[in-house]
What we know:
Blueprint: H1 15-28, E1 34-38, E2 51-52, E3 62-63, E4 67-70, E5 79-82, E6 95-99, E7 111-114, E8 118-120, E9 125-128, E10 143-144, E11 155-157, H2 165-173, E12 178-182, E13 185-192, E14 196-197, E15 207-208, H3 211-221, E16 224-232, H4 236-242, E17 249-253, H5 264-271, E18 274-277, E19 282-283, E20 289-292, E21 298-302, H6 306-324, E22 333-336, E23 348-356, E24 359-362, H7 372-375, E25 379-383, E26 393-398
Parallel strand pairs: 5-6, 13-16, 13-17, 14-15, 17-21, 19-23
Antiparallel strand pairs: 1-12, 2-11, 3-10, 4-6, 4-7, 5-9, 8-9, 18-20, 20-21, 22-26, 23-24, 23-25, 25-26
Amino acid sequence: MNGPLLEYNPHPVSLARARALAQELGDAAPAAASRHVPLLEAGGSYLAEDLAAPYPLPHYESSAMDGWALAEPLDPTASWILNRTDKPASLRPGEATPVVTGGTLPQGTAVVLPLEHGQVSATETLSVAEDAPAHALTRGRHIRRTGTEANTSDVLVPRGKKLTPVDLALAAAIGADTVQVSAPIAATLIRTGNEVVSAGVPTAGTVRDSFSALLPPMLSAWGAHVETNVALGDSLESTLAALDAPTPLIVTTGGTGPSGADHLLDALRMRADRIAFASIAMRPGHPTMMAQMKDGRTVLSLPGNPLAAVCAAMTLLPQFLAGVRRSEPAPERTFVSAEDVEPLSGRTRVTPAILTESGVRRANWVGSGMLRGLASADVLMLIPESGLAAGDEVATIALPWL
């Protein structure tokens, strides 16, 4: 149990470097398994392979309006003989036939004239209504051409994307009954701290466990599943035993500091194959560590303060899990800063923020142990160490529950 300690870099890495390392650890971990699931059950899952069009979209030429398919000539003073045959294969010059939205068009269709822009005589001839716009007979108007949305083999939804209702509708449009998605990545949540209580009102010197309510749904939103959630006392022996959890991902909270009650760094130095970093130049969330075991299991050790833990988890876990899925993380969005933000030398400031008409601004109540500001936030804002001037663009991370 008390084997040699693994060497590690004690100096904090930049947040950008920590995020790159998190994805590297994901790339080095065993790839996520995948499975086919029924289309209507795939919402919120992560696509395991590109969804490509097996045929053009639309796959046939159709009408975009209820009205008439007209053959040449396209002369507003002309009239067309109505062909009432059910779905005629073709139109001769001077003929027209009724069509509905989405209906197939016969060969020879030059334009679709909307219902309200035509008039039919008693002799079954069609003419253009006097109040029809001048462009009503523009060649090709209201015709949905084959392949105007996608060509065969076009990637419609890329691998690694979290499937939305629109993605599922698009998959249905190309005839998919199932899709291949990444299986949820099994995780263990280990909560350390003698002072943490799991129920009731905390007394002086104790704090209520907030991570059991917070982290499992966050991980679920990113494609992981907490299989085991355990609480540990502050001892090296129990920490070492907990790190034997068999899941590919182990997330710990608390115990990452330098005090005599904090044992995670020593435990990782004794058990890990590689400590990617032991601290990050960010605030809050500085005492965050990531390591990989010899068998490929990965440990993310988060600080014990709730907001610090969330900021670290949100900046690192999506990167790591994208690596496991062999895909790219979701891109960040940039917004204009609505306020000046003072520099924080040597550290990236990560803070809950609110979107306003004038841009994005920091929320209130954003101390490392607070959650109230996060509850009111729309995004996390990544403020560079140089600070911000109002009007500067700043990167943000979407909150997984919004």
